[in-house]
Structure of Polyadenylate-binding protein-interacting protein 1:
Amino acid sequence: MAKPQVVVAPVLMSKLSVNAPEFYPSSYSSNYTESYEDGCEDYPTLSEYVQDFLNHLSEQPGSFETEIEQFAETLNGWVTTDDALQELVDLIYQQATSIPNFSSMGARLCNYLSHHLTISPESGNFRQLLLQRCRTEYEIKDQAAKGDKVTRKRFHAFVLFLGELYLNLEIKGTNGQVTRADILQVSLRELLNALFSNPMDDNLICAVKLLKLTGVLPGFDVEEKCGLESLHLSGDLCKRLRTPGKPLT
């Protein structure tokens, strides 16, 4: 089976649902789905199996709903050690932060796996290891925001992925209620501070993209922290940025 070719494209804020049938390309074939239903016998390593599936989702996001259950079941038979779980987390994180249009899909995938992977070692379950991986990037935010162009680009990809995790990652309480991972709010506010404290064009663009994605986060004072009026943003955008929790459409 030929490896799907992933093309790096600019981040696009689409209002379309990835569940829509229109996301299936005209060349879509059920053979790919059938190959996953047959299991992972054709893949010599976990890395190759997971990477192929991630590339497949990048090209055919509409296949998520029909193939994710089988993918998770296969992983439960394969990911049985701490090292394998860490490798899985690293592979998904890398895809979500290196392919810009995969950040939303990556966050949905992370949410599903956090609820359906059975392995839960002492070193941490899938969600805990994922957040630890994000923490590693978060801790160097100030250096990254003022780094060179390549460093900033990598940092921006992380920022937007964390924003998607904030929107998609669900945590089940002891009574079975599902809540958003609100703990990420604090991290996102600090990331915005880092971006606006280093007002290079690409940092400001990333900050506005995050605000468009999440809405203004509670406790984040846009006017005090960012001085928006001096950033040459439109008056309408400034007005909407002052409304906490309101998405920027």
About this structure: The domain at 42-241 is CATH 1.25.40.180 (Serine Threonine Protein Phosphatase 5, Tetratricopeptide repeat). The first strand starts at residue 170 and ends at 172.
